[in-house]
Task: structure prediction
Amino acid sequence: MVVPQEKISNSSSSIDQILAREQKRKSGISYTLKQGFGLILILALFIASWYTAEVSPQTFWEGIPRLGSWLERMFPPDFSEFPTFLIATWETLAIAIVGTGIAIIIALPLALITARNLTPFPAIAPMLRMILNLLRGIDTAIFALFFVSVVGLGPFAGVLGVAFHTTGSMAKLYAEALETIPMKPIEAVKATGADSLRIFAFAVLPEALPGLASISLYLWEFNVRSSVILGIVGAGGIGYELLVSLKLLDFGRLSTILILILLMVSLIDGASAYLRKQLS
Result:
């Protein structure tokens, strides 16, 4: 099919006019003032934050010799409690596994309710999204600290902390993944008269599964790292041993714990990245 030269000319002329108007808008005084005001505002915010946070490069520089002394005292590592540290490391990993698993079970139905293209309850979806935002906004360590006062010291408080925070993050990311799936397969299965469970099993899940699995692996990987910190608030794991070493200034012991944490996190990161690559 041959496009008339006149149409091509008119189209090119319209594009040129649009580009000219955009260029004129960006070169205007009001646009320049807005850009300048925005930059000044960002700079003022940064300077105010700098002073509020009491940032002092001089203090850091003066503390470097002390840091160097601590690094010297961390070698050689003390492996006398290595079996105890291995058990504590496994405890940290278990907190992340169970907490993430619970979050997956709870987050999937919540995501189906809050996903705008799939929700069977559009009236309550906005309220649920607000609750999920609240769960995401409270850090895992804060949840764990709260549950320590409820269930006592130990890894169970850590599991609850991970589960509550991760449910909020996971449900939101799941919902976003579900909102991007094509609707034609869903409409085709609906046309057969299938119920909601069959629609989910045969149309929604096959399309969304790679994305959901990738999100789950990423958050599990994140939870392994955050679970290390939970020991500091009394939720068990290798983080508790880390806190004890810091309080006692036992640097040989601290060095062994840091080596174990580094190995655990590196292995989990590598395995998670490999699995996510396979899913994509």
Summary: The CA atoms of residues 86 and 260 lie 8 Å apart.
